[in-house]
Amino acid sequence: MKEKGILFVLSGPSGVGKGTVRKALFEQDTELKYSISMTTRPIREGEQEGVDYFYRTREQFENMIDENKMLEYAEYVGNYYGTPKAYVEEMLDKGHDVFLEIEVQGAMQVKQNFPHGVFIFLIPPSLEELKNRIIDRGTESEHLISSRLDEAKNEIEMMEAYDYVVVNDDVDHAVRKVQSIVQSEHCKRERIAKQYKQLLEVDER
Ligand SMILES: Nc1nc2c(ncn2[C@@H]2O[C@H](COP(=O)(O)OP(=O)(O)O)[C@@H](O)[C@H]2O)c(=O)[nH]1
Ligand SMILES: Nc1ncnc2c1ncn2[C@@H]1O[C@H](COP(=O)(O)OP(=O)(O)O)[C@@H](O)[C@H]1O
To answer: Which ligand 1 atom is at minimum distance from the Cα of 37?
Structure first.
């Protein structure tokens, strides 16, 4: 498929602040379309079906996989997380830019299908700070924290596969950096499209 919009993928190790940065980005006036993920994890207090995630049973999720309706998916801490294909394809086809916030395994699957996507990797200012964020969030038990950190080190090795690396030192700062990547990629594509059109027009004369 020749997509008309740009697919942006924000990824990075667990606990780095992907969700925090994405939410802050979408609180600003943005023309990006956020792709709501599907998950089998239980809904948390304060979350809403169809806003934070589409909450589904394992059976429903596996049916989506079998029917080839997922753009990517990964099993993460015992639950499935994935991006439904239809919305992303429809939005890109209409010329909208689409934004995914997903973990590393899923991002690598997307890269295979969308090599022209823009892949942004969020890193912590240090591993010590990453550890503090995982502890502060309070969602992991003590013994899981060290395995999470080991996993994070492996995830950080995937950094080279990305187009941009953004340090999440301060949320506003990180959001501004992501916004400027989005803007410059957008300008770049528009310029290329314009030049291509002009070239064809010259050829027709
Ligand atoms: N592969 C993939 N990962 C996702 C998707 N949606 C969310 N995630 C990631 O799944 C992980 C767990 O998310 P969540 O259960 O909401 O907990 P969080 O750690 O508080 O963000 C995070 O790293 C998300 O970025 C998705 O559609 N696909
Ligand atoms: N720039 C930052 N400075 C300090 N704490 C942060 C920052 N970004 C995120 N956090 C905190 O770190 C924890 C992990 O953030 P979260 O968005 O859940 O990460 P991820 O989605 O990557 O797993 C949360 O408690 C969040 O409030």
So the answer is: 27
pLDDT above 80 for 205:
no
Q: Is 136 in the pocket of ligand 2 (CB under 6 A)?
A: yes
Interface predicted TM-score (ipTM) = 0.96
Kindly give the distance from the C-alpha atom of residue 132 to the centroid of ligand 2, in angstroms, as a whole number. 10
Q: Relative to the alpha carbon of 101, which ligand is closest?
A: 1
Predicted model pTM = 0.93
As given in the structure block, the two tokens for residue 47 are 């979350």
Q: Distance, CA 187 to ligand 1 centroid (Å)?
A: 29
Closest ligand to C-alpha of residue 172 is 2
CATH numeric code, 7-35+97-204: 3.40.50.300
Burial class of 138 by CB neighbour count within 10 A (0 to 12, 13 to 18, 19+): exposed
Say yes or no to pLDDT of 80 above 90: yes
Is pLDDT at 76 greater than 80 in this prediction?
Answer: yes
Q: Give distance in angstroms: CA of 15 to centre of ligand 2.
A: 6
Q: Whose CA is nearest to atom 25 of ligand 2?
A: 137
Choice among 35-39, 54-58, 120-124, 193-197 with the minimum mean pLDDT = 193-197
Q: Annotation-wise, does 17 bind a ligand?
A: yes
